[in-house]
Design goal:
17 helices; alpha/beta; disordered N terminus; about 15% strand; 12 strands
């Protein structure tokens, strides 16, 4: 992306640190090819967070920005908490810790979205599916589901009873952030949750869930229906307690062929979206599925407000395939944050240019990686928050 210097400017909170050491006459606006300028962010009179305005197609001065897994293992402050509380479940099921970890990136980078620190598997214990998340191994399902009898033992999820700490944490987060950013909740999609509980954890080949799908489809459909009903309740619960948008993660749906996606994932995603929109019509719903290039048009059929693209999809191509009626999120490669600051800047500008003005949330195309330099994350936010569209 080509940029040219056009005029001097005064420093602001989001000016890259290197600029602060330059003489005033060398502090410049940057005219970018997307038709905007890097300027001091303007105060907005809108009462709604920027992210919500962007999703709803309102005029915004820049794309909102947050990062998936932004309260992650790359932050030194998070490592300190991990040393004191080594169990992931303890960290994610304690109100005070959830709030503290969720606010860590907010306190440092001021993203436009503050996402709840949790896990998509958090509801499982309340559904009579014992599990744990073990360091170095990931999720472990103690009694994987394999039969109709196993499915009969699964309970519908009651978030009020099983995860009251989630509602408490979201309420606190909304008060702390105070509409300066959107508070984001999230849930797992039915097929992805079913994959974990049938496979017994993470999987490389997904042979167990596919064996169930193709040899006993009624059994799998029964399980998927329980998850669909339960996640609908969970999204409503999160919204009622402070979440201003909710992201649905269908991480493993892209292991399905398009025809199988249409049978085992799409109907349940659509059911969730339709049901939530009946009670919470203004709640933005975001859908993310990694490796979804072959399914983009089908993801849009779910009725979500935002499709989050992974980095293997060209943003301009994704826009064309999805159409401009639906918002997009993404999609910088998380590996870019290991590059030079100039490289990071160029990739941000490239992504924003291809996404165009409006209905775009700038994000990574996947969760941020362990070991990502915090100074590069700071640079990502500085550059992103300095972009400005022409009026």
């Amino acid at each position: 992306m080509s940029c040219t210097s056009v005029s001097s400017f005064t420093t602001s909170l989001f000016v890259p640190s290197k600029c602060l050491s330059l003489p005033n006459q060398k502090r410049r606006l940057i005219q970018c090819s997307l038709g905007g300028t890097v300027v001091e962010p303007k105060a907005t009179a809108a009462s709604e967070p920027l992210l919500l305005n962007a999703v709803r197609g309102q005029d915004v001065e820049r794309p909102p920005v947050w990062l998936m897994r932004q309260a992650g293992r790359y932050m030194k402050s998070y490592q300190v908490i991990c040393e004191k509380y080594p169990s992931f479940r303890e960290r994610s099921e304690n109100v005070d810790l959830v709030v503290e970890i969720s606010l860590q990136p907010w306190n440092v980078f001021q993203p436009d979205g503050v996402i709840l620190f949790s896990d998509i598997l958090t509801p499982l214990s309340g559904m009579n599916i014992p599990f744990d998340i073990v360091k170095g191994k990931g999720p472990i399902i103690f009694d994987p589901i394999a039969t109709a009898g196993d499915v009969d033992q699964v309970r519908e999820f009651s978030p009020e009873e099983s995860v009251p700490y989630v509602g408490e944490a979201l309420t606190i987060l909304q008060k702390e952030v105070d509409n300066k950013a959107a508070v984001l909740g999230f849930v797992g999609a039915p097929f992805t949750l079913a994959s974990y509980v049938v496979e017994g954890g993470s999987s490389k080949n997904f042979t167990k869930i596919k064996r169930l799908a193709f040899s006993q489809p009624k059994v799998l459909h029964s399980l998927l229906q329980i998850f669909a009903t339960s996640m609908t309740k969970y999204i409503r619960y999160q919204a009622d307690n402070g979440a201003q948008a909710v992201q649905i993660f269908d991480s493993w749906a892209t292991e399905l062929s398009p025809v199988d996606f249409e049978e085992f994932s799409l109907p349940y995603l659509k059911q969730i979206v339709d049901a939530v929109k009946q009670t919470h019509p203004d709640l933005p719903l975001i859908l993310y599925a990694s490796g979804s290039g072959g399914l983009l048009e089908r993801l849009a059929l779910t009725g979500v407000d935002v499709v989050s693209l992974d980095w293997t999809v060209d943003m301009a191509e994704g826009r064309r395939r999805l159409g401009h009626d639906i918002a997009v999120q993404g999609n910088v490669d998380p590996g870019v944050l290991f590059g030079s600051k100039e490289f990071i800047t160029n990739r941000i500008h490239d992504t924003v240019t291809k996404a165009g003005k409006g209905k775009h949330i700038l994000n990574l195309g996947h969760g941020i990686k362990v070991g990502t330099p915090e100074e590069n994350v700071a640079h990502f936010f500085e550059v992103a928050k300095a972009i400005s569209f022409d009026p």
